[in-house]
Amino acid sequence: MITKRRDIATLQEIRQFIENNFTKDIPVVSICKEFGFNRTKLQEGFNQLFDITVHAFICQLRMDKARGLLRETDEPVKLIGLECGYKKLSSFTRVFTRWHGMSPTQYRALSVANEKLSEKADGSVN
Helix axis angle, 54-72 relative to 28-35, nearest 10°? Predict the structure, then answer.
């Protein structure tokens, strides 16, 4: 259990650091060195304080960004994967599919179809 205020403050700094850098390669080991925590203290403390693992938090941020880019841009899926911090399209597609139950391409197609249906229902498309 985290009891030290200093540890809680550091974990909040780590969360902010991750939010600002999630599109980069930020291994847990690097975070530990940067903030002076050992791996166990970081992972257990982060999970305890924020109710999510460090890895899952990074994935969540990346998936949020990916969904937005897939809905709002026509950028190629490969480029979106790179912008979200994935070096390989296969890694991006695998993680996206695990999180959403469909590939990024399928998600984009469904989003476009839903947007058209919504516009029709609103009467904004002739």
Answer: 120
Give per-residue burial for 91-105: e unless 16+ CB within 10 Å, then b.
ebbebbeebbeeebe
What angle, rounded to 10 degrees, do the helices at 5-21 and 54-72 form?
30
Report how far residue 108's alpha carbon sits from residue 111's, in angstroms, rounded to the nearest whole number: 5
> What domains are defined for the chain?
1-51 (no CATH), 62-126 (1.10.10.60)
10-residue block means of pLDDT along the chain (126 residues)?
A: 84 98 95 95 95 97 97 96 96 97 96 76 64
pLDDT at 120: 75
Residues 6+ apart with CB under 8 A from 77: 70, 89, 92, 93, 104, 105, 108
pTM of the model: 0.86
Q: Are 57 and 75 in contact (CB under 8 A)?
A: no
